[in-house]
Amino acid sequence: MVAVSKERNVGSVMILECLGRQAAGKGKQTLNDRVQALLAEGRILLLVDLSQVSNIYSEDISALVRTFVSTRTRGGKLKLLKLSPRVRQVLEATRLFNVLEAFDEESAAIASFE
């Protein structure tokens, strides 16, 4: 599963830096669990940095959909940053690329929340 390795704020946007399955290891919080905790705290503008995720699997796709829906339900926005070619390919094949906004540059992604 994709796990959150670091998080940081840029203004009102929380950036979640993620690791892929091989690098995540034990003790890291899954993306879905961390997003749910942030939403409970009222943090609703979320940018998921996937630059360290080289591939995603079916359970990762399910987690992205759950986090996206949960965020939208709470009136928030969840966007993606720095997709690897393989992750982009999988999201395009599943048609999620049409639903989830993705950015290559952090500054453009942050500006899109305004």
Top keywords for this entry?
114 residues; alpha/beta; Transcription Regulator spoIIAA; 6-stranded mixed β-sheet; 5 helices; globular
Determine the mean pLDDT. 91
Please tally the β strands and state the result. Answer: 6
Give the low-confidence spans.
Answer: none
Q: In percent, how helical is the residue content?
A: 40-55%
Order of helices and strands: EEHEHEHEHEH
Taking all Cα atoms into account, the compactness measure Rg is 13 Å
Strand percentage lies at 25-35%
Describe this structure in words.
The structure is a single chain. This protein has 114 residues and is α/β, with parallel strands linked by helices. It has one domain: STAS domain (Transcription Regulator spoIIAA, 2-Layer Sandwich). It is built from five helices and six strands, in the order E-E-H-E-H-E-H-E-H-E-H. It has helices at residues 21-24, 31-40, 58-73, 85-93, 106-112, and strands at residues 3-10, 13-19, 29-30, 45-52, 77-81, 102-103. The protein has a six-stranded mixed sheet with strand order 3-1-2-4-5-6. Helix 3 links the parallel strand 4 (45-52) and strand 5. Helix 2 (31-40) packs parallel to helix 3 (58-73). The longest helix is centred in the middle third of the chain and has 16 residues, at 58-73. The chain is globular, with a radius of gyration of 13 Å.
Write the layout of secondary structure elements.
Blueprint (H helix, E strand, L loop, with lengths): L2 E8 L2 E7 L1 H4 L4 E2 H10 L4 E8 L5 H16 L3 E5 L3 H9 L8 E2 L2 H7 L2
Parallel strand pairs: 2-4, 4-5, 5-6
Antiparallel strand pairs: 1-2, 1-3
Helix pairs in contact: 2-3
